[in-house]
Amino acid sequence: MNAADRPLPRIETDRLVLRCWHPSDVHALDEAVRASVDHLQAWSPWVLNETADRSELTPRLQRHHNNFESGSEYVYGIFDPHETRVLGAAGLYTRQGPDI
User: Is the pLDDT of residue 93 over 80?
Assistant: First the structure.
């Protein structure tokens, strides 16, 4: 896939910003996860371990950032317009092989 075919690294609307994660987002992500841990546990098994140990969040964000740059996956953080609060996340994942 060439650069012109890749998803945009940043999308802004009046109400939110979707952008590629960066390791510096660790504090905002940690706050959002801790505030929603009861809900997230059912859908995101990693939440239990990583909320107890913030040191696991930074490598996760770095992997998302690196993978976005390399084009192997596109995981976005969803932020308020000032990018001070994490509202969620969304991802586009490449698949290889037939019927995948």
Answer: yes
Whole-angstrom CA distances from 94 to 66, 74, 86, 97 are 14, 8, 24, 10
Q: Is the dihedral of CA 30, 33, 37, 43 positive or negative?
A: negative
- Give the tens place of pLDDT for each residue, 6-28: 899 999 999 999 999 999 999 99
User: Structure tokens of 19?
Assistant: 């952008």
Number of Cβ within 10 Å of residue 10's Cβ equals 9
The pTM assigned to this predicted structure is: 0.82
Rounded to whole angstroms, the Cα distance separating 75 from 68 reads 7
Cα 11 to its chain centre, rounded Å, is: 14
CA–CA dist 10, 49 (Å, integer): 29
Residue type, 53: D
Could you give the CA distance from residue 45 to residue 28 in angstroms, rounded to a whole number? 19
Report the candidate in 33, 77, 67 with the shortest Cα–Cα distance to residue 53: 33
Q: What is the DSSP-derived secondary structure letter of residue 7?
A: P
